[in-house]
Amino acid sequence: MRINKYIAKSGLCSRRKAEELIINNEVSVNDVLIKELAFKVDEKKDIVKVKGKIISIKEELVYYLLNKPIGYISSAKDERGRKTVIDLLKEVKERIYPIGRLDYDTSGLLLLTNDGDLTYKITHPKHNINKVYEAYVEGIPTKDEIYSFEKGLNIEDYKTSKAKIDIIDIKGKNSVVRITIHEGKNRQVRKMCDKINHPVIKLKRVSIGNIKLNNLKEGKYRPLTNQEIKYLYSL
Ligand code: URA
Fold first, then answer.
1. Which of 66, 70, 75, 103 to mutate to test ligand 1, by most ligand atoms within 8 A of the CB atom?
2. Ligand 1 proximity of 41 Cβ (cutoff 6 Å)
3. Measured distance CA(212)–CA(231) in Å, rounded
4. Does the Cβ of 189 fall within 6 Å of ligand 1?
5. Do 130-208 and 63-125+212-234 fall under one CATH topology?
6. Residue 110: beta bridge partners?
7. Considering the domain 130-208, what is its CATH architecture?
8. What is the domain partition of the chain in residue ranges?
9. Top-tier CATH class for 3-55
10. Could you tell me the pTM of the whole model?
11. Per-residue pLDDT tens digits for 144-165
């Protein structure tokens, strides 16, 4: 979108006035002063400032569920040039971002929105929302290992709170387990599995609270239903 249109859409002033702002060196995009009236901004990625203050277009609030494949980073930009989950939602015009994160090497359910209030609510640790993962792990956890996993493990400088782990399949020497946690520390599931000596080979998130991935294909996304949005707000 042309920069003057963007500024006008933000509600700041008319397109004509926006051009005057550009001529007066008062507009920057990603902290670079804009000289060109026809400059185009990427509404999803660029940070536009007028007189040093960020402006943005008031957008309709949107909510999506993505089945994230392995090999995508859960942020809008990556300094190392890796593919981001936003690349998978190219048709979405709004400036969305993920609610929480999945590791580069984790697949599965990721929620994305442009609703900052909901993001804050869901990612706040006090909300205790269950997150369910399916993990293919080395070996087969014993009863004692399952007990200590569920009771709480000392990891680095914290102790994990109560969790659940069930063996759902055995594949030769290894197993598939379903893990439920309600925290979201960095690489927590992997660290918990390491701690009981069953490192993760593959990890996928299958649900967040009542919201389920079901049979959505990897790399595909869908809008949340009104009911799902209401549910997230009710948490
Ligand atoms: N726990 C992990 O270890 N990785 C994830 O991506 C999510 C939870």
1. 103
2. no
3. 12
4. yes
5. yes
6. 66
7. 2-Layer Sandwich (3.30)
8. 3-55, 63-125+212-234, 130-208
9. alpha beta
10. 0.80
11. 999 999 999 999 999 999 999 9
